[in-house]
Amino acid sequence: MIKGSNVALTDLSDDIGSVIVGLGWASPTGEGDADVSVLLLDANGKVRSDSDFYFYNHPVAADGSVQLLGKTPTADGSEDRISFDLTAVPSEIDRIVVAASRYDGARFGELEDVRITLADAAGENLCRFAVDDAGSVTAVIFGELYRRGEEWKFRAVGQGYETGLAGLATDFGVDIEDDAAAEAEEALGAAEGDEQPDSTSPAPTEEPARQVTGEDIPAPRRPEGEVGEPKKPAARPRTAKKKVTLPKTVKKTLAENDSWRQARLFPVSVLKNDRDREMRATSVLLSVMAQVPEFSRRLTAGFGAPAGRMETFTEVSLPHGDSPRRPDGVIRVERAGKLWTALVETKTNGNALKADQVQAYMDIAARRGYEAVITLTNDVALEGSPLVDVKIDKRRKHKVALWHLSWAEVVHQAQMLIRHEGVSDAAHAWLLQELLHYLQHENSGCHGFQNMGPAWVPVRNGIDDETLCQGDARALEVVESWERLIRQVCLRLGGELGQKVLPVQRAKRGADPRERRNRLADQLCLDGRLQAELRIEGTPGVLAISADLRTGRLRTSIETPAPEQGYPLSWAKRLVRRLAEAPADLHVETRVDSETGGPRGTLERLRPEPADLLPKDNGTKITGFRLSLLKSMGSGRGNAESGFIRSVDDAVHRFYTTVVIHLDAPTTRRAPSKERAATG
Prior knowledge:
- There is one protein chain.
- This protein is of the alpha+beta class and 680 residues long.
- The protein is 26% helix and 24% strand.
- The protein is built from 14 helices and 23 strands.
- The protein has a seven-stranded antiparallel beta sheet. Strands 1-11-10-7-3-4 form a six-stranded antiparallel beta sheet. A five-stranded antiparallel beta sheet has the order 5-6-2-8-9, with no helix packed on it.
- Helix 3 (274-291) runs antiparallel to helix 7 (426-440) and helix 6 runs parallel beside helix 9 (473-497).
- The chain is globular, with a radius of gyration of 26 Å.
- Mean pLDDT is 82; it is low at 178-241 and 668-680.
């Protein structure tokens, strides 16, 4: 689409009850990012109230009409996706504005391939609009969904705001606090974090979530009619109910000794074979989904499922030719008298999907008017590389979407809810905890991606004896397995930390997934290395992973930029002091603006003499420091103790917990109040 053009959704698809909007961009450095937001507007072009403003700290509409799904890895990095249930949008809403904003003075002109895409409930891409003239703006309206009579249309907007999110939100009726109120609220937030209320103070009704600062997100307007009441700092927009999370410290057990096993809702000791594991895992997951709506929406909103009453079923018999078929599960969601149905096919213990089986379920779903088939295995699907190939009869008017989940994704979503973001009540938190315990048990068979594939050993041997040639299909298989492993590492680490962890894909590497993987396969044949980068929210740099198949060594590293103020010797001393608990064999290298490179050494040697990190030439400019850990990698292709997958997982976990966690978070200059108001 071109800027300003519009199209009716019914002209693009027959299935537009729900749509998925994706906002994406690429960064030359791999570190650029932005936050998405959605505004629901009435016929006057204004929000009805501040609850019509959705962003990362208020991501879900109570009626299910809007849900921010967060970032999803794609071929060129990641994409923010938003689910819209158009049948649930209130009738008084005339337009839905989809926007994104940058922060800390960053501009959209620094990003590449800024775009918005629209897909229907079957996952089929409907349209794409590239924002080519973002320039120096800090916020952009990518597009809008709007009503014309009884139908919905989409318009490619591409309007930029130099005043950032604050200017955009103000235009649509979201009130922005004045400077004094913002400063007062920030001071109050700091006081709440440092002091405990005394016993004589009235108990607060509910603590507002304070995950963002005043300058990042505009606060909502105050309710009208509060004349005479004391003026209090406004709360940030957020979900309506207080969330329940698991306590950080485990209660002391009442067991007499360690041999006593706690009773579990979902026992795993009786599982004897793969069939038992598949049946039990499916039943456990679907039953929890039916009882915990926050969890089920996390898993199904991206598949086009509406928000409504969900029921789940297992071992359902459905007619198909001469003999009935029995999918592992069925998910049904009812909303406004309409049903959304998905068939579920589950595999555990690394068992592969059978193409003929999935094809049969696609045919059954098409005949019966079901919306989707969901496969659930230990494998991780890659964009442009489906796990199974199925034939779709395009003559059929009804479309069926084929979606895939990995068990690692299920575990990640459960961890994010019960450990970090919270659910609506304690019973839901307990159910998710029992599910998590079951899935992580060694006998469940739900351990995520755990096999580098049959090409792993031949490729390693070919690299050792220098017989592996460019264009070898086995090298491409290893590159795809490596990409799956990295995405799973991101899921696991993100679930533990409660932070966004995403694979970095730099813009210069290209956007086409097949071409990019072919280039990486050729590079593997040349230098024998597999490489990846992870961006972890709140860390000062990108975490790099390099697996050298020639030497059998894994390197995990991070580069931290040099401070903007102070003296080089002070930087070196502070860095060594921050790394007091880091491993002694940590390699520290000074990065300089010359080709010769800077001083380097192990932390053990540098601790008594941090000045050894300084270049001998006082005129050499220090640009930062590179920290690296080396370890031997497993030789096996699987996830056993001696396997390659386990060694990569352990290396990333060790590097983060012993090195990265001790580093200073990225610092941003605090702008004066008036400047913040001007820049958003």
